[in-house]
């Protein structure tokens, strides 16, 4: 369980205690609010993140004080979109965070991933991943002593590609033209991406340069069923609000409308490989 999930469960437990102290059952509260009982259950069990209006209506219905309302809304503002500072997560190195991704991805039934500045982790080679971990450790000033262990876990994460799950991955050509790894490592990475075109069950695409995008794409993201994770330079956002998750679903659908797949994607990757090969030979 991630720290975000634990905090959401704790928040749900607080909502449950407010209801219990008011002497109401879950069904009575649902009836008073005009909600389905399943919503009460999901909020109390930490399966869904509440909106401000949900908390206010909940607490108003049980007669909670205004100070309690304000306190719960303040807690919710920190929870709804959980900002987990990378520096705090990576204080002991990258391996634990990679293990967390391993568990989340293997538990998911559907994975949708789009990256615009880096090769997606599920398709990275060991050399490329090693370069990513080193640059991040330097920027965030966190330990780099577990890089090799982190690389091993990242490689283990890729087992999920061969487990029959519904997986979609899009990478921007921009990420391949502005590499974090040296040319020889990029050659190996591009070869890996070429092979990804033919992985059974994997939908893989490349966003070609100079092609008009359907929407502004500020950050890469990965969708694990009904949860979205968005990486920023110094923080990671975890989003599970249904309306916001739906936005990412629409964005992914629109990106597929302009992405190259199959032979088109392979041709782009092979042209890029030729450029990096020229660099290594020059």
Coarse structural class:
alpha+beta
Spell out the helices and strands N to C: HHHHHEHHEHHEHHEEEEHEH
Largest sheet: 8 strands, mixed
Mean pLDDT over the full residue set: 91
Strand content: 5-15%
Question: What's the end-to-end separation, in Å?
Answer: 49 Å
The first-level CATH class name of the largest domain: Alpha Beta
Percent of residues in helices: 55-70%
Rg of Cα set:
22 Å
User: How is the largest sheet built, in terms of strand order?
Assistant: 1-7-6-5-2-3-4-8
CATH fold-level label of the largest domain: Endonuclease, Chain A
Q: In the residues, how many domains can be counted?
A: 2
Low-confidence stretches: none
Work out the helix count: 13
Annotated CATH architecture of the largest domain: 2-Layer Sandwich
Q: Give me the CATH superfamily of the largest domain.
A: Endonuclease Chain A
Helices and strands in order:
Layout: H1 3-21, H2 26-33, H3 37-44, H4 52-61, H5 66-79, E1 81-85, H6 86-89, H7 95-107, E2 110-115, H8 126-140, H9 147-157, E3 166-172, H10 173-177, H11 183-196, E4 202-207, E5 221-224, E6 227-231, E7 235-239, H12 242-258, E8 260-261, H13 262-281
Parallel strand pairs: 2-3, 3-4
Antiparallel strand pairs: 1-7, 2-5, 4-8, 5-6, 6-7
Pfam families: DUF5753 (PF19054), HTH_31 (PF13560)
Domain HTH cro/C1-type: 15-69
Protein name: Helix-turn-helix protein
């Amino acid at each position: 369980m991630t720290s975000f999930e634990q905090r959401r469960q704790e928040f749900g437990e607080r909502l449950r205690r407010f209801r219990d102290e008011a002497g109401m059952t879950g069904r009575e509260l649902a009836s008073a609010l005009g909600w389905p009982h399943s919503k009460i259950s999901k909020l109390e069990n930490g399966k869904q993140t509440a909106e401000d209006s949900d908390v206010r209506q909940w607490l108003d219905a049980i007669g909670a004080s205004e100070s309690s309302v304000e306190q719960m809304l303040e807690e919710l503002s920190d929870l709804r979109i959980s900002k987990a500072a990378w520096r705090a997560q990576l204080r002991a190195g990258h391996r634990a965070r990679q293990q967390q991704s391993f568990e989340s991805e293997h538990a998911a039934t559907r994975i949708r991933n789009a990256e615009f500045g880096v090769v997606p982790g599920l398709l990275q080679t060991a050399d490329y991943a090693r370069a990513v971990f080193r640059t991040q450790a330097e920027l965030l000033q966190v330990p780099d002593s577990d890089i090799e262990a982190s690389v091993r876990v990242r490689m283990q994460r890729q087992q999920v590609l061969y487990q029959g799950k519904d997986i979609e991955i899009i990478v921007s050509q921009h990420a391949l033209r502005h590499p974090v790894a040296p040319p020889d490592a990029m050659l190996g990475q591009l070869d890996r991406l070429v092979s990804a075109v033919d992985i059974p069950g994997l939908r893989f695409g490349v966003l070609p340069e100079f092609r008009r995008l359907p929407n502004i794409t500020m950050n890469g993201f990965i969708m694990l069923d009904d949860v979205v994770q968005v990486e920023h330079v110094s923080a990671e956002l975890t989003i599970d609000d249904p309306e916001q998750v739906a936005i990412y679903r629409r964005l992914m659908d629109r990106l597929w409308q302009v992405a190259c797949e199959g032979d088109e994607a392979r041709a782009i990757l092979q042209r890029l490989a030729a450029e990096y090969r020229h660099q290594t030979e020059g």
